[in-house]
Write a structure and sequence with these properties.
There is one protein chain. The protein contains 9 helices and 5 strands; from the N terminus they run H-H-H-H-H-H-H-E-E-H-E-H-E-E. Strand 1 and strand 2 form a beta hairpin. It has 231 residues and is an alpha+beta fold. The chain has a 5-stranded mixed β-sheet, with helices on both faces.
């Protein structure tokens, strides 16, 4: 079998099929093959894509793979890995553009915005969502990465981001890789100190949302401090 998509019969080439019939008719492997373009000895680009999916599992899991990990995969290398990583990032940003058009003042919206990304993580991640006076998303920044069950977040660093970027307010979001979004004692202490600091600085502390996993906890797969009267 040919090692280049260009050498395949025209009716079998993913790019030509996409242009003729639309992207929806292509398999996951065919879509990936458009970016991979050339194969290796014994595998064309489609087969390389199929192998990648077998090794990683799903497109979502592949999209969470770091560019460095992608680059280390056989038949990709830095250039192709960069193409794939850029394509995944464009998709993520396009999917989340709605968040800049609605007020981010409800925990279910914050959950919708970050759940798919944060539920795939095997470590704790602390994110700060900065909002303007209309409570529309102004900036999204990851401040800390921790271990499986712990992250190191200091109120000073969180508040500093909001001040530096002249935000009207902020929401704090972090995940619990265990799947249970119930707040720990440390989560409660951090929230209390953030509330005190935000009041002093005149910042709107929108919410602190903990993201868990569906089915791992009775009720919602997230915990909102504001919804529970703790902010």
């Amino acid at each position: 079998m040919s090692h280049r998509i260009h050498d395949l019969p025209e009716d079998d080439r993913p790019r030509e099929r996409l242009l003729r019939l639309g992207p929806g008719v292509l398999t996951d492997a065919e879509l990936l093959a458009i970016f991979i373009n050339t194969g290796v000895k014994g595998e064309n680009a489609i087969q390389v894509a199929q192998r990648l999916l077998r090794e990683v599992g799903t497109l979502r899991q592949l999209s969470r793979t770091s560019p460095a990990e992608l680059a280390s995969s056989r038949a990709l290398g830095p250039a192709k890995a960069a193409h794939l990583a850029a394509a995944f990032e464009i998709g993520k940003r396009a999917e989340r553009e709605w968040a800049r058009e609605v007020p981010m003042n409800a925990p279910e919206l914050i959950y919708k915005y970050l759940a798919a990304e944060m539920q795939c993580l095997a470590h704790e991640s602390v994110r700060v969502l900065l909002v303007n006076t209309r409570l529309h998303l102004q900036r999204d920044e990851e401040l800390f990465r921790g271990t499986v069950n712990e992250s190191v977040a200091h109120p000073r660093d969180i508040l500093q981001v909001a001040v530096v970027h002249k935000a009207f307010g902020f929401a704090l979001v972090h995940n619990h890789p265990s799947g249970d979004p119930s707040p720990s004692a440390a989560d409660k202490t951090l929230t209390r100190r953030l509330k005190e600091g935000a009041e002093i600085l005149g910042l709107n502390f929108v919410d602190h949302v903990i993201i868990g996993l569906p089915g791992e906890h009775r009720g919602q797969p997230y915990f909102s401090f504001r919804e529970n009267g703790m902010i």
